[in-house]
Structures are given as structure tokens and as C-alpha cells.
Amino acid sequence: MTLSGKKILLGITGGIAAYKMNYLVRELLKKGAEVQVVLSQAATDFVSPLTLSTLSQKPALVDFYNQDKTWNNHVDLALWADLLLIAPCTANTMAKMTTGLCDNLLMAIYMSAKCPVMIAPAMDLDMYQHPSTLKNMATLESFNHTIIPAEFGELASGLVGQGRLAENDTILKHIQSIIEKESEDQKLKGKIVLITAGPTYENIDPVRFIGNHSSGKMGYALAEEAASRGAKVILVSGPSQLKPQHDNIELHRITSAQQMYDEVFKYYEKVDIAIASAAVADYAPKTIAKEKIKKSDSEFSIELVKNKDILLQMGKEKHHQFLVGFALETQNEEENALAKLEKKNLDMIVLNSLRDEGAGFQNDTNKVKIFTKDEKKVFDLKSKEDVAVDILNLVEEKLKL
Ligand code: PMT
Question: What are the residues whose beta carbons fall under 8 Å from the beta carbon of 151, sequence distance 6 or more?
Fold first, then answer.
């Protein structure tokens, strides 16, 4: 998911979970959002405005007036925001929101906001279940605000129940879905996108395999980006630690190249766009030993057979699909990538070279060149999320979406 250019006003009120907002701010910035933090006076007892200013790269605001007598214009701040999120939101602040009790900067911003409002309450379990809190939450829902329910678990009081602030991942998911709903930019709505990701493991025996260093980061970033643009994504992934976040992503886990091939061709016929970012093993052991192969004093060799080239076959069977391949090279990069574009009947190929620092396997970043039959685009080193944005922008441009 990218929140590139989105403006989020984060209101923090006085609760122990306020410290978690330090991490949320970092995540939001990583995803490309601009964040303006506004704290209630009580929140400053739990989290430092200086930390939040540093993390958000903007002064975190508390009062209408700053020390230098400048004024924080609540109307401008409210109109600036694409989304107002109040997290953690106390019972006190919820009560003010329902009644219009406007006694601090955050409440003045809230009452001037025209953007969507999202609230993540956090409090002790009895406060959370109190009829006044339940009534206030219902009222706020009737104002069309999104409530991210508190979670069950251990609370700061030592009691166990519902009241914990929702995890940051859950809050991020809600932010993403609300931003998407607001966005007119869902150019992949109605499209089915197939993405291969990660490595394949070719078993030698029950304990050993031939694999490669792919983490899946590039493919999963593409899946998240395509899903956030409205596509239904079929993600066929080799072994990876990653988990897709977006609800529109259907994950199909496989292990070997043959399994990836079988899974891809269950869906290939019906997809609109296919992107092969997986690092598929070109060879596999001819036989897989049923038992662990015992060490002996002599040399040992494994006979390998060629795996099917999944992308080559996709190119052969291509009719309506827009087909994107990757090329991971270490020498003669452009020449090899262009040869693959031609041989595999691709519409586009994304070249990454292991000679570029920060590119390729495992890194959070990548540096790519993208080729179509008539065009070459060169990109700087950037996060894999931003590379996914560049790739899908170009796919949309080529498909005239
Ligand atoms: O997962 P990460 O750690 O984020 O790393 C990302 C990545 C480096 C794996 C990714 O950016 C990348 O380059 N993926 C392609 C790696 C690769 O196998 O490249 P290749 O040049 O060997 O293969 C060319 C294309 O054919 C690829 O699209 C590949 O998916 C496909 N292929 C290759 C062999 C095979 N048997 N079947 C295939 O479909």
C-alpha cells in the first residue's frame, strides 16, 4: 500500500497507548503520507511532542497559540487534511465530539473538518462497556465516522478485556481502505491481476532444497499496490515470511517451480494483467529422496532436470493479457532483458541488476529500468513500494486506463 501524497491529521488524546503513535507516524511516513500531529494537553503526559515533531518532520501542535505567539489556524489545518484520525481516542474526547464541546485545538480542528474522520478508542474495559461510551460510539457512527474497535487483551490497569488500542497494522488497513474509497484513482477496479512472488524451493530430500535469496518483498509490494488501485489480486507466492495486508489479495502459497506453474495456469486464462516477479529455480533434482540422504566419505552429486519456464509459457498462451516479466541480471543487463522481452513475448520487462547497490534480492529498495518494445525508462533507487507504483503507473499508461 502507498499513501503517497496523502495528508493525515493525527489527533492524539491522553491515554497510555499514545506512545504507540510514535511507531504509527513512522509507518505512515514510510508509506509516503504527510502527517500533522495534534495532541490534547493530556496526551502530552503520555507522549512527547518533541518526539512526534521529529518523527513527523513537522511541529506537533497542542495549543491554539505557540510560544512565539503564532496562531495555529484550526480551519486551515482541518481543510489541509485528507483524513482526520484520532488515536487513541479517550472516552472524554468521544463525549466532547458527540456534544460539540470545543475546548482545545484538536476539537476545533475536528469541528471544522470536512474530510473523513476515524476514531480508535482505547480505555479500561469497564469504561469501554459503559452505556455512555457505547452511546457515544453509536452517535459518532451516525455522524459517518469510522470507529476502529478496541481490541481484547491485557490493559494497563492489569485487567483483561476489550479496551486496548487497535494494533497499528489494523489502523493502517482502515486508513488505506478509507483513502481508497475517497480516491477516484482506482484504475484497476474490475481487473484481475496475477502476480508471482518469492523464491521456489526444489526439494532434494525431506530436509534439503535448492533455493534462492528472494524474500518476496518486490512481488508483495506489487500485490499491495495493485489491490489498492482496485484490482482483485491473485498472488502466487513461493516460501516467504511476508503476509499480504489488503483484503483484495488472494494468496496461493506454493513451494516448487512445478507447483507455481500449476497454480498460475489455474487462473491465467481469466486474468487481465500478469506480473512475474518470482525468482523461479531453473533446475530441480531429477528425483527427491524419500529419506534424508546420509553423509558419506565420497563426493556427492545431484542430477538436475530443467524446470518449465512459467513466463515463457504465459507468453505463448497470451491473448488478452498484459504480460510483465522481470529480469535479474549480473552482466550485459540491457541486452539480456531485451532478449527476454522478445523471447517470452512480453509487453513489458523490469530489469534489476545485482551490480546496483540496494537492488534485487532481500533489500527494501530496488533500482529498475523498464522496457517495452518501443520505450525505455530509467528509475532511481527507491523503496520497493515506490517501484511497484512506477511499474503499475506504466502498465496503466500502456493499457490507456
Ligand atoms: O523477492 P525480493 O527479495 O524482493 O527480490 C526481488 C527479485 C530480485 C526476486 C525480483 O525483483 C526479480 O528480479 N525477479 C525475477 C528474478 C528472476 O528469476 O529473473 P530471471 O531473469 O531469471 O527470469 C526472467 C523472468 O522469467 C522472471 O520474470 C521470472 O519470474 C520468470 N521465470 C524464470 C524462470 C522460470 N522457470 N519461470 C519463470 O517464470
Answer: 162, 164, 165, 166, 167, 170
Percent of the chain clearing pLDDT 70 (strictly above): 99
Do 239 and 256 meet the contact criterion of CB atoms below 8 Å apart? no
Distance CA 397, CA 97 (A): 44
State which amino acid sits at residue 141. Answer: E
**Would you say the CATH fold of 192-290+298-398 matches that of 7-184?**
yes
- Which residue in 22, 92, 212, 345 is the catalytic one? 212
User: Quick one: which H or E segment has residue 322?
Assistant: strand 322-329
For residues 280 and 87, what is the distance between their CA atoms, to the nearest angstrom? Answer: 43
The one-letter amino acid code at 58 reads K
Distance (Å, whole) CA 3 – CA 5: 6
* Closest ligand 1 atom to Cα of 352: 13
pLDDT in tens, 341-369: 999 999 999 999 999 999 999 999 999 99
d(CA 122, CA 368): 43
Cα(327) to ligand 1 centroid in Å equals 6
Instruction: Name residue 71's beta-bridge partners.
Output: 65
List the residue whose alpha carbon is closest to atom 10 of ligand 1. Answer: 277
What letters, b where the CB count within 10 A reaches 16 and e where it falls short, cover 336-364? bbbebbeebebbbbbbbbeebeebbbebe
- Looking from the CA of 268 toward its CB, the CA atoms found within 13 Å total 21
- The CATH code for residues 192-290+298-398 is 3.40.50.10300
* CATH superfamily name and code, 7-184: Flavin prenyltransferase-like (3.40.50.1950)
**Domain limits of the chain?**
7-184, 192-290+298-398
Q: What is the CA radius of gyration of the chain?
A: 25
Q: Which residues contact 223 (CB under 8 A, 6 or more apart)?
A: 193, 195, 197, 233, 235, 244, 246, 249
Told to judge if 332 belongs to the known catalytic residues of this protein, a careful annotator would answer: no
Q: What is the pLDDT of residues 196-236, one digit of tens each?
A: 999 999 999 999 999 999 999 999 999 999 998 999 999 99
